[in-house]
Amino acid sequence: MKTTVELPDRLLRQAKKVALKRRITFKELLTSALQREILPIEESQETVFKVGEDGMPYLPSRNVKVTSNTVADILDSEEY
């Protein structure tokens, strides 16, 4: 899919230099950078916690809302 993105001139020049050094296209560099930035977030949110209907995070593995007490309990346990 094609799209247009506005980047600061300096950042674009640096990115193109990096792509040349790595012997890849700018498109490959941009795709790789976006995958590294986005995919871990999506995967971790799905596997570690979810957001309930009330907008609060909960741990599906424990079926509990995440509160400061929940975090303290997890840190105190040896399960994390």
Largest sheet: 3 strands, antiparallel
Structural class: mainly alpha
Kindly report how far apart the N and C termini lie: 40 Å
**Any low-confidence stretches, pLDDT <50, length ≥5?**
none
Overall average pLDDT = 81
- SSE pattern, N- to C-terminal: HHEEEH
β-strand percent reads 5-15%
Cα-based radius of gyration, to the nearest Å? 20 Å
Broad shape? elongated
Count the beta strands.
3
Residues in helices, as a percent range: 55-70%
Number of domains: 2
| SS element count, helices | 3
Query: Strand order across the biggest sheet?
Result: 1-2-3
Question: What would you say this structure looks like, in words?
Answer:
The chain has 80 residues and is mainly α. The chain folds into 2 domains: 7-47; 48-80, no CATH class. 56% of the residues lie in helices and 9% in strands. It is built from 3 helices and 3 strands, in the order ααβββα. The chain has helices spanning 9-22, 26-47, 68-76, and strands spanning 50-51, 57-59, 64-65. It has a 3-stranded antiparallel beta sheet with strand order 1-2-3. A hairpin with a 4-residue loop joins strand 2 and strand 3. Helix 1 packs across helix 2 (26-47). The longest helix is centred in the middle third of the chain and has 22 residues, at 26-47. The mean pLDDT is 81.
Helix-strand layout with pairing:
Elements: H1 9-22, H2 26-47, E1 50-51, E2 57-59, E3 64-65, H3 68-76
Antiparallel strand pairs: 1-2, 2-3
